[in-house]
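hey all, quick one before standup. I had two proteins in the batch that finished overnight and I want to keep them in one place so we stop losing track of which output belongs to which input. First protein below, input sequence then structure tokens straight from the run.
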Amino acid sequence: MLSRVLLYGLRCIIGGVVVGSLWLTGLILFTRIIPSSPQDTTSATDGIVIFTGGKTRLKEGLALFEQKKAEYLLVSGVNPVSTFPESVEKMSERSHITLGYDALDTVGNAEETAAWAYKHQIKTLRLITSNYHMPRSLFELHHLLPQVQILPHPVVGDNFLKPKWWFEGETLYLVVQEYNKFLFALIRRPFEDLQGFLLAREKSQ
């Protein structure tokens, strides 16, 4: 009996070490796909979308839109109590700016963006969000807009510009948190696709 308990405990320890090693390896790989700067700041696109979450994102997106880098602009996930809409009302191209209030998370951002892109027949899109948030945002958007060319335009915080940013506790926490959300998205999406397929199949019968 004791030997079985010890064997079970040993298996649990080995399993934990393997899972932990895989998670850590994935985290290291994840940090390597976090962009450190926008690759293209000059090309024009049909639309620009800003996933809200910081003033820098809004400032960058509005500046590019005012430079005529896109015909349409979507600000997804606007806080209803924000004063940002008041400043947008004063812009000359207000009719081409959409303020989205429905999105509460990244999935909601992607869904809001997809509906807007279909409405305006967007074929090329510049995505503005924080650099650590870019991998998951692209994953969600590519799934809903497979035919749209998406140009990532990351906003990079000062901490990420440091040579050894992983020593910054707050920054490392953001990356680990985002990595876990990214893993969950990779797991969640196939199940949702399967569920949608089964529902569609059931309705067709």
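OK second protein, same deal, sequence then tokens:
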Amino acid sequence: MKKESALLEGERCDSKWCEVRHSGIHGRGLFAKKRIPQGTNIIEYVGEKIDKEESNRRGWARIDYAKKTGDAAVYIFTLDDEYDIDGDIPTNSARLINHSCEPNCEAWIEDGSIWIGAGRDIEKGEELFYNYGFDLESWEDHPCYCGSKRCVGYIAGKEYWPELKKRIAAKNAKAKAKAKGASKKAAKRKSA
């Protein structure tokens, strides 16, 4: 049974390696059309080249919009120290690749272009994932739904995982202490 494309009107996927399909992680994603060998450049991340000031302006505006609508998609990708790529265009199917704590793809920059490539051999039909590499500035705003065995619960670069795990443990301990205090108060009220 052939999987149905999830391309919207005006969109296209310019890669012989992958196609847009429905994903259980975040609505849509990219999936391997055929076996992809490790190291293969799968798809270029394209969009408007913008300076860091404009990137920050657009990113924060998108976050404000997300708080109102729940649509948290920000498609700005770091290109270098001066520029980013705003991939929020219909012809950039690479923007639909979802995050995973156990990715099968990597992003790299080659000759001024951002490429998503196979970090390992990928089988036909597998969903493509890479680690978005977010820092911990607003980690609580970015829960992870990848469902992998190694999922840390939030979208963060692997280098941040040790600190993230400490923050999650502290948050859980605080919530547990608060719940314990509340149940003690309830028990006192019942006995009074």
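Flagging for whoever picks this up: The first helix runs from residue 52 to 69. The helical segments are 52-69, 161-191.
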